[in-house]
Please model this.
Amino acid sequence: MQALHDKDSIDFDWDKNVSSDPASPQFSMSIGGKAFYVVGLHPNSSRTARSFEKPVMIFNLHSQFELLRDEGSYRRIRQTILKRHEALDGEHNPMLAVHGESSEALQYSGRKLENDWKCPFHARKRGDDDK
Model:
C-alpha cells in the first residue's frame, strides 16, 4: 500500500474527508483523492473470509460506509458479517472494529495485531520528492 500511495501522491491529494494519519480513528486509505477501506486477502490468512489463492487487495469506497450509517443499515450489515465470520472460524474477527471508532489500518490485514503494533505506512503530500 505504501508503494501504491507513493505513486498516487505524485498526482493526487489525500481525500479531505478522512485522516492521512494511520493512528487516527478517522484514517482511511486515499487513492486518486478518494478514501477507501481496504481488505487484504492471501492464501495463508488465519481468517477463512480473508483467504484467497493469490494476494489481493479489495478497495471499498469509504463513503459507502458513511452512507450505510446514514441509512441505518450499517449495524445490521456488520452483525451479518460477524455471524458469517463466527460460522467460518468459530469466532468473530477480533480486528473487525466499528467503523470510525479506531483506525482502519488496524483492520486491513485481518490478522490479530500485537498491542504495540505500529502501522508502517507514512502518507506523503502530493509532489513530495523523497520517494
The longest helix spans residues 74-89.
